[in-house]
Amino acid sequence: MRHKEINPARALDDLESILGKDWLEENLKSMKDGQNGKGGFGRFIDFTELGIAHVVKIWYKAREETIDREIVGGGMPGPYTLAVAAMAGDLEPLYLNAGLSNKIDELKETKLSLRVMHELGIASGYARKGYRIDFIKRQVVGSIQGCDVLPGLGVFMVESGVSKAAIICADAHPQNDLGDIFYCARHFPGASQNAGDGGDAALLQRVLCLYVADGLTDGASRLDEWAVHPELMRLSKDDNLPVLLYTDGIKNMHNRSVYVRWGRLVEGNQAALFKDIYIPDEIITAAEL
């Protein structure tokens, strides 16, 4: 597995700079006001009730963990600190790629924040493989009725030489309609439909990346469960659409908490046209203070 150690204090500073301190202050005010007391404050904030974006939640919790470690004079980074460190590691190779500012705007949206965090992790993996990432060239999504407004669906393009692909990212979350996501993935313009049309469409391959578990307690079993999902197997085998399943979370390794992201392909991808698929397999640790 790829292993990277990240300075947690620098990661927090970088995230604050990217999100904007003024915007974070506005969220802190909303949390303090608590919408007439419905959301709580301190360690008992109901972020969902307050409509706070997930990225704010992990930033706020990581700050709490950092303060706690400073009070006791050190210690191991907590789970939210590790999540922030992972995000800092994900963003690092993406800074010069087209449309990142648009993706950061989506990261701030309450309904999109968690999915965009996962999407940035996948995009970062392709960037480290040498691909150029483009978060802008997704106008083609609008050609599929309804697919441009699905909060559980994100698309970016990767390109290296003559190899290019549309990476379709989605979360298998109960609030997302998987039927709609599968429909959009199946009908997304790609090589299997457009091979004879010429132009960029003829070169465009597709990969569906589906996040299937929140946390590692059931991550492995969830990957196995989804790997035999009938609809995903049809997408992979009949529609020539590679399907990547992945998960992430905190795991204890050698008496130390680490952030782990890993995945697997659904059976049937061997015949896929796009061979260079990024399969998550990495550990991120935060340096001790």
Describe this structure in a few short sentences:
The protein has helices at residues 8-19, 21-37, 47-50, 54-72, 79-91, 100-107, 113-128, 178-187, 191-194, 199-203, 219-227, 230-237, and strands at 2-6, 132-134, 153-160, 163-171, 204-214, 243-253, 256-265, 281-286. With 289 residues, the chain is of the alpha/beta class. The protein has an eight-stranded mixed β-sheet with strand order 1-8-7-6-5-4-3-2.
Name a few traits of the molecule.
globular; eight-stranded mixed β-sheet; alpha/beta; 12 helices; 289 residues
Describe the structure.
By secondary structure, this protein is of the alpha/beta class. The chain has one domain. It contains 12 helices and 8 strands. An 8-stranded mixed beta sheet has the order 1-8-7-6-5-4-3-2. Strand 3 and strand 4 form a beta hairpin. The longest helix has 19 residues. It is globular. 39% of the residues are buried. About 4% of the residues have low confidence.
Note the topology.
Blueprint: E1 2-6, H1 8-19, H2 21-37, H3 47-50, H4 54-72, H5 79-91, H6 100-107, H7 113-128, E2 132-134, E3 153-160, E4 163-171, H8 178-187, H9 191-194, H10 199-203, E5 204-214, H11 219-227, H12 230-237, E6 243-253, E7 256-265, E8 281-286
Parallel strand pairs: 1-8, 4-5, 5-6
Antiparallel strand pairs: 2-3, 3-4, 6-7, 7-8
